[in-house]
Backbone:
């Protein structure tokens, strides 16, 4: 589930991308958004409650009851949300709620496609709808087993680099930033793995979410990074971040020599074991 901090960052990217000028907090706490949230929060609370209960040690009959309650509440939420979208499809706040719902309540591809179809019919030129559509398309396109979406960005030498340049290699696409402590904490282990498995065709391709070029370059220097690192001034809206639906870091995508996604957010030990088996 999204924390409030992550949601605020997400909404900032959302409004930044569609050209809104209001502040993050103003949008997150806007009366209209809060109105919709209050309408659906009882569903959200109930769904979260049964989801958390289902992960606890339970007797078989109790688990069945919890799961039935979870599925019942989710079904009611989906039906009511579908009706709400149908009745309010021209409202620009609706796609924003659907994005929140996708990340925080219900990731069902089937139901999100239903919402999309309604918006596509009734409000195809709504800029919020277009962003929601692109977001779901990106999420669908970066599933394990699918071809990794190509992208092109400048590296630390101002040379334009594309993912397809590395066909035939195992590539770990690693999204990071200078201010992200967990990201930088992974660099020592990544350097060991890059050296250990270089002969197996493994390499790291990093993409920075930094806002400022000097911060990105200083972090690379401090961490003694030698592999290819990509950055442009679009930050979270750069081509790779949009295509891979990146809204929080660290995140990584492992691509095989044929250009297919074989793992997402793989841990360093798992990565080592995977490469050792090849």
Residues:
């Amino acid at each position: 589930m999204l924390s409030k901090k992550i949601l605020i960052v997400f909404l900032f990217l959302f409004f930044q991308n569609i050209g809104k000028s209001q502040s993050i907090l103003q949008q997150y706490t806007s009366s209209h958004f809060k109105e919709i949230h209050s309408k659906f929060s009882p569903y959200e609370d109930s769904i979260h409650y049964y989801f958390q209960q289902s992960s606890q040690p339970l007797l078989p009959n109790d688990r069945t009851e919890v799961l039935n309650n979870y599925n019942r509440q989710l079904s009611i939420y989906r039906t009511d949300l579908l009706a709400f979208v149908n009745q309010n499809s021209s409202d620009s706040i609706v796609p924003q709620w659907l994005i929140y719902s996708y990340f925080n309540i219900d990731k069902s591809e089937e139901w999100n496609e239903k919402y999309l179809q309604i918006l596509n019919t009734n409000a195809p030129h709504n800029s919020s709808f277009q962003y929601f559509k692109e977001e779901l398309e990106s999420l669908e396109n970066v599933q394990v087993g699918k071809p990794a979406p190509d992208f092109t960005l400048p590296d630390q030498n101002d040379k334009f680099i594309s993912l397809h340049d590395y066909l035939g290699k195992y590539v770990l696409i690693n999204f990071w930033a200078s201010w992200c402590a967990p990201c930088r904490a992974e660099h020592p282990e990544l350097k060991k793995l890059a050296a250990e498995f270089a002969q197996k065709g493994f390499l790291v391709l990093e993409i920075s979410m930094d806002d400022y070029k000097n911060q990105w370059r200083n972090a690379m220097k401090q961490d003694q990074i030698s592999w290819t690192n990509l950055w442009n001034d679009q930050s979270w809206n750069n081509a790779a971040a949009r295509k891979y639906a990146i809204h929080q870091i660290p995140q990584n995508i492992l691509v095989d020599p044929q250009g297919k996604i074989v793992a997402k957010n793989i841990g360093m030990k798992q990565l080592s074991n995977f490469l050792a088996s090849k």
Notes: Residues 146-277 form a domain with the Glutaredoxin fold (CATH 3.40.30.10).
